[in-house]
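Whiteboard transcription, Tuesday session. T.W. wrote the structure tokens on the left side:
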């Protein structure tokens, strides 16, 4: 039996993981769950899975949770704050940690799990964007295993299995294009948060859905792929594939290509990571290619969605620039969702912050965190104007 900790259990990836675990209780046991402040859902998850430990980022929410369940769950340990989340990620009883916290908040818990030598199912791409080299080096030193959970990186991981890494010529990430793949550029400025949150293929959290709409999510995946598979920016391409059936493609040095296909359902890559190297039966619905009929591909329109080019720029600049990219994006997306900025303001804010940044070496975590803090202040100042 695999003993599992889920960081971010109340988010979309966490909920999908718990659905899988509920169907395979003979294979998985839940050791710990963590959440931000959604204690209503967390309470239900606790009663369903009986973990030994839970951690709540919001300390007041943790107190409320304790009052609710102290009598019915007497053996449960409730931790709180960022320190509590980090402690939950490193529990000795757990051998698999699903890192599914959204945004930069996932960096330190992910690092905590890696330093504890865990098998880490990585759904938090921002941790690799911010500090990829540090996480990869730590995993190597601590004999931790990082298994990608993003559908695209899971696809690449599956495609290169059994092949020599030296034979990989190129990685091609596919993108759905988001809800505005065919919207005229002049109409993008009028887009509302409600419209941007209607993703045509995937059901995800708010932040990642907006990132998908701007193609920043795909930009982050370029940086993530660089760290996971060791390829430079010029050997990582993107194709818009609106059907979301081909999740990524690997081209080898003999020019043959291997692609991974399935219906668009995050349960597939989550189940693959949870059970690796084995596979769970019927993790997702069977793919019916005859019914789908046509699979289409095209180059992304950088003119309409410049965030993709900013990710390439950040990767090529290296150092602290990817952390600055991520921080500026998080501030701009939050401003859009709260009505303080327009949809087309997101890339404008990001570019301006990047233009102001002087890149530093990112070998030390403190330097990365300071760059993150600096970028957030700059983005907020730009928004206030």
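and on the right, the sequence the group agreed on:
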């Amino acid at each position: 039996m695999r003993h599992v900790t889920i960081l971010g259990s109340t988010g979309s990836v966490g909920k999908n993981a718990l659905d899988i675990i509920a169907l395979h209780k003979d294979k998985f046991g839940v050791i710990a769950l963590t959440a931000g402040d959604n204690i209503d859902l967390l309470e239900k998850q606790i009663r369903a899975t009986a973990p030994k430990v839970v951690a709540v980022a919001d300390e007041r929410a943790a107190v409320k949770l304790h009052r609710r369940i102290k009598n019915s769950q007497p053996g449960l340990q409730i931790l709180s704050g960022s320190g509590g989340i980090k402690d939950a990620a490193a529990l000795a009883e757990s051998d698999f940690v699903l890192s599914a916290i959204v945004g930069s908040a996932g960096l330190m818990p992910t690092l905590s799990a890696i330093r504890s030598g865990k098998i880490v199912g990585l759904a938090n791409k921002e941790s690799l964007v911010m500090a990829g080299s540090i996480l990869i080096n730590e995993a190597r030193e601590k004999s931790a295993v990082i298994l990608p959970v993003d559908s695209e990186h899971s696809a690449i991981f599956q495609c290169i299995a059994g092949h020599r890494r030296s034979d990989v010529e190129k990685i091609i990430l596919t993108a759905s294009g988001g809800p505005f793949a065919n919207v005229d550029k002049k109409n993008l400025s009028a887009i509302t948060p409600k419209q941007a949150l209607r993703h045509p293929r995937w059901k995800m959290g708010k932040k990642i859905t907006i990132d998908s709409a701007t193609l920043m999510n795909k930009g982050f995946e370029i940086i993530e792929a660089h760290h996971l598979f060791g390829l430079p920016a010029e050997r990582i391409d993107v194709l818009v594939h609106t059907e979301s059936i081909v999740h990524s493609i690997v081209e080898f040095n003999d020019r043959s290509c291997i692609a991974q296909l399935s219906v668009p359902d995050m349960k597939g890559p989550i189940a693959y990571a949870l059970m690796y190297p084995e596979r769970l039966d019927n993790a997702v619905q069977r793919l019916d290619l005859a019914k789908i009929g046509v699979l289409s591909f095209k180059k992304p329109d950088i003119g309409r969605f410049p965030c993709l080019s900013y990710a390439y720029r950040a990767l090529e600049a290296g150092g602290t620039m990817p952390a600055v990219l991520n921080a500026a994006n998080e501030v701009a997306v939050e401003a859009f969702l709260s009505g303080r900025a327009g949809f087309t303001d997101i890339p404008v804010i990001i570019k301006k912050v990047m233009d102001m940044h002087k890149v530093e070496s990112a070998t030390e975590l403190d330097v990365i965190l300071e760059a993150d803090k600096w970028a957030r202040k700059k983005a907020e100042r730009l928004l206030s104007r």
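Someone added at the bottom: The chain has a mean pLDDT of 94.
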